[in-house]
Each structure stands twice: as structure tokens, then as C-alpha cells.
Specification:
Distance between the termini: 71 Å
Strand content: 15-25%
Number of strands: 8
Largest sheet: 6 strands, antiparallel
Shape: elongated
Strand order of the largest sheet: 2-1-6-5-4-3
Number of helices: 1
Structural class: mainly beta
Amino acid sequence: MWHSHKYSDLQFDSKFIYLGVGDPDREKKQNWFDGTINYFAVYGTKLDPLTIRRMSVNIDRSLFDFEHYEELKAYYDAKFCKGSSIIDLSGNDKTGYVKNCKQIVTNKAKIKMLPIPVRKNGKFKALPHEENGYKDGYWLSWKS
């Protein structure tokens, strides 16, 4: 579970943002998350769907490389944890805290392997014929 430092300049009902769980002080339905979170960001403006899509499929670039980077209010990347603290990369000094979770290393391939189509045996048969020849990049006879 991550929770961030106080967000008094942002408008939330709670003074903390919790990732991976509902409010942990709540008795019922804490809604624990079973998965991974690579990075998380809070922006001071609404992002358009295309920008969000580009960010969500990003595996090798920082969020500073995208539009609206100057609107980042908080930016956490799970690679930048020190003990139970997660560093706010936005420069706004909103340190996050990690509790009841572990950091794991994942290897997501940048290259996607595509299967090569399988050839089926054809119904055509090559018939014996006399070689017509090939010279300087052209057939000697176009009968081939």
C-alpha cells in the first residue's frame, strides 16, 4: 500500500491518497489490490484520453517526456524507493510511504515476438524444364 504525504493544495476528501487499498483505517471492505503499480502521477489539469493512452503503454520513458509534464503535482515511480519511502519525482516534496507490500523486479520485453506463418503444402507441382538462363539481373527468355 502506498500513501502520499498531505495534499493540501489538491482537492480531496481525505488528506491522503491510498494506492492498492481503500482507507486502511476502515473496518469493512478495505479493498486490497493484488497486482503491481509501476508508477503513479497526479496532475493539476485534466488529461485528454489520447495522452493517457500514450502514457499507459509507455514502458521506457519518463512522464516528463509527455505533454503537461509541467502540471505534475506528484510523480512516483516504484523504482525509486528508499526503505519505506517512495520519492516524489515531481520536485514538489510529497514523499510517499510504502506499507504491507514488497518491491519486485519485472522484465517486460521491449520486443514483441510474432509467429511466422506456417506454409501448407501446395497443390502445384514443378515440372521438369530446360533452364533458360539469367544474366545481368534479367532472364534471357521471358518464357520462364
